[in-house]
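[step 3/7] fold_predict: job queued, chain A
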Amino acid sequence: MYHLIIDWAEAWAPLIPLFFILRKKNKIPWLKPVSIYIWVALLLNLAATLLWKYKVAWGIKEGDFLWSNNFLYNIHSIIRLLLFSWFFILLKQRFMHRIKAVLPFLFLILVAVNFIFFEDFFNRQMLSSRLLATEAAILLFYCLQYYIFLMLEDRSTSLKKQPGFWIVTSLTFYVAVSFFIFLFYTHLVNEDWEFAVDIWDVHNIAFIFLCIFIAIQFHRDAKQVKQ
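[step 4/7] structure written:
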């Protein structure tokens, strides 16, 4: 039962924040990209998990385009970086504002170069460690500059009440845990495929925490708006 729950975590975890997104209908501007991300994550992760679990039952054969769901993770990674970049920009923290605005474009250039010259976007054998690790590193930079800004600003407001605190905290945990998994995943697949599959459970657990804390953010901000 545990493995079944964790295996499907990427598909069901977005439903946690989605409940509050639909129920609270929060219109705070910097929550919009996160709300969009939850919808995207739900659709892509559900498709990836269904493809992984039922491709044989659906008659998909090795060598067919849909034999691998890796391209869905590539799409997910690119969209996640762009939407969370938008989120951090909308927080309007003056610290490193130009760098934050430029990074998404630099990321897209790196992605284009990587998949044109070095890797196949639709690789059926393994995930793109380069793409996922680069995305995680950039998101970790965004998170760290968020905390640096709060330290530099002399504010009387509680840390937990700072805009986006719960989202950034969970995102920091998620990318910190996932970075090394992403970075070495290609090597792990080649050296020990079973361990690579098992270590992905750690990623799924981190993703569950991300979704729970995003739900907390939407719930708390909806209450503050009503007050």
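[step 5/7] annotate
The mean pLDDT is 89.
Residues 193-226 form the longest helix (34 residues).
exit 0
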